Amino acid sequence: MLSRLARWRVPLGFLFFVVAFWLATPTVASVLAGAAVALAGQALRVWAAGHIEKGAEVTRSGPYRLMRHPLYVGSAIMAIGFGIAAASIGTASLILAYFLVTYVAAMRSEEAILDERFDGEYAAYRAGRAGAVVRRFSVQRAFGRNREYRSVAGLVCVFVLLWLSA
Predict the structure, then answer these.
(1) Are 86 and 21 in contact (CB under 8 A)?
(2) Within 10 A of 144 (CB to CB), how many other CB atoms are there?
(3) Rounded to an integer, what is the distance from CA 143 to the centroid of its chain?
(4) How far apart are CA 73 and CA 106, in angstroms?
(5) Burial level of 106, CB count in 10 A (0-12/13-18/19+)?
(6) DSSP state, 68?
(7) How many independent structural domains does the chain possess?
(8) Where in the sequence is the domain holding 71, given as residue range(s)?
(9) What 8-state DSSP symbol labels residue 142?
(10) What's the pTM value of the predicted model, to 2 decimals?
(11) pLDDT per residue as tens digits for the range 103-138
């Protein structure tokens, strides 16, 4: 059930976004405040994407030294920014419900896969027993291999739409 819900996270996100945007009542001030928060989340996502080697290792450099799921945390911060920008309790409630259900499922599903694939290495990382790995941030890794440009483009589109409806 968790893995199915995790796989549906992105399509459900588009559906939830349409409803959340419909409920939104943005103002210029709320859009500017929300954009500032969302940019912090996007910066965390770019930092994480510049370090992660998906499926090849348990990444322990960059923000992965500090937290297990910086891409998800960055997305959550971006969603909080959207909620602030939307200036709507209905939108904020919808965002909260979506993230609690889909992202918790995605994190648990992903952790189970990593535990299985990396035979104890992920469990050691999760328990804080795995040492940090020194790896420099790579723009090519962030925007090439990990295609973080999609997240940046989505963020720009969302805030342009909110700005136009403010």
Answers:
(1) yes
(2) 12
(3) 15
(4) 12
(5) buried
(6) S
(7) 1
(8) 2-165
(9) I
(10) 0.91
(11) 888 898 889 889 999 988 999 998 888 887 889 999
